[in-house]
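Sequence and structure are no longer studied apart. To make this concrete, we show below a single chain and its fold as tokens.
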Amino acid sequence: MLTLLLPSSLLAASPVIPDNWHYRQAAWAFYLQQPEQALETLQLAKAQDPRTALLEAGLYLQLAMPQHAAVILQHLLNQDDVGDNALPRTLRNVALLQFARYQLELGNKALAQRYLAQVQIGADGQWLGEQQLLSQLIYWPDISLPETPPIRALAGQSEMPYIVSNQALALARAGQSDVALNWLNQLQQQLRVPEQRGFWALLFSGQWRSLRAPAGFIYPAAEKAALSDYVTLLKAQLHIDRQELADAEALLASFPLDSVLSDTALGLYSHILTEQRHIPSLLAVLQQQIKQQPFSLTAWQGATRLGEQLERQANFSDALAAYQWAEQYYQQQSSLINQQARPLQVSQLQQGLSDWQQLQLTEHNDLYRLSQDILTVEQQLAAAPVRQQRLQRLTQVVQFKLGQQQQLLSSRLPQLTGLAATLKQRYDDLRRQIADAEQQPLALSLTDGDTYQQLRRVEQAGQRFASIENALNSDNNYDNNYAQRLARLRGLLHWHYSDNSAQGRYQRRQQLAAISSALQTAEQQLAQLAAQGSSTERLKAQQQRLAQLSASQQQLNLTLLSQQQQLLAQLNQQLQQQRKAQLARLTELQRHNKQSMARMMERLLPAALTQAEVSR
């Protein structure tokens, strides 16, 4: 049997790679919070289906590239939503909702409305809550108001409390505060904290069904607390608007101090105490606001209100002292703002922000988004060397495979072609010999070995005997035994060959089958080498694609660096605008406070002069 010295890894069948291999790799990188690597994996794919394109759009959105995401998403939306390759409706709705929310956060309400209008909610109601909540945020305050709170209609939707509370606010704005309070009371009854019981406790207590089908709306403790506090504040605000201060005070009296909405609750409580003229309690609340909310308008106004409340009590000397303290407080705040409002660097966004800068990013969504965009670009710039190294390694791997295949084709292909031709020639010759021999009487052409040599000698002896047979016939002493002996010997040899001819034919056919098998193996290896030639074109295309990606990566780094500087300049500019606006507000409050100080001095001056005259 003939064999070829070819690498088995090159001659074996190519491994079957699933069509969605790049999608799986990108999804895994996305799960590991590596959006840049996920995007590179998708860009190396041969072709993209709608699901892969949707993931790519989401990655662009995560990397703060909404323009690229919009192009891909618009292309997906223009495609037909029927057929085997169509994007499922659920994924289509998710993409539309998320991109509409992103456009709303950027302030593009028109684009948000356009993408939201394309959402098609199915009969199962999946994503209905997200659609209605997003619709309220986009069209506020012109939102739809049903006759009853849609608590049952939104069963199973986690956005239900937010939707109902927004509708209650809209009702209050429309003058239906009674209905709004009723809706909020119904909403608060639907919220409850899950019992902190373990799996085994529920299982052996007979309450194992609650593991699968909990009754009512169950939220995590932190989210439930925030929802309950928010509903409480809404109810308190409605009571204040209705001049039901006692009811509002009763709601705020038990408001948790550690709530995320405690500052808002403190402001409402301060307003109630002001209206009720509870001066001692109000002074304590104002001091608490000044302590808890530095650099805030509430704290600045509270500093002046301290003196105003003391002035209402006709405690003019204490009021003057409070106004003087407020003057020092304003000067201190102005000095701190100027110190802490210095231009930011990128490294400070990760750590090193001042209290004033941190407060501005927390309270202003535009500033926060700018800071997050800067950090996102910084992450991409930090990962740029890693991406460049990965591209270089991929380029080296492709170059190595390409050189290996070219070497294989140049060295093995001629050798294998010649071997196949030789085997083909031997196969044809042997078949022709077998066909010719089978047409002869005894197949003498296929005879070899001793029997063949003996038969030749007998035939030669017979020829010589025939030549001298006439001369021998004239001799009276000639014995005809020689001719008989030759005939017997020829017959014996013919019988012996006929007896062994079947085995000879079998051996020849086995030799023909071996040559045929070797020829088939050679042809298969030639076909595999031809397939390697087609993969060479694919490797060349990948090599060109990697070169383009490497060039675009360098251009992207320059673009990202420029974009980061522009975003940082915008952030610093808006922070400076906030600084100037706050300093102007402080200046106005200082002017008002100085007027109050002058007023208190005028009131206290006659009394001081009288006391001075008495002391003389």
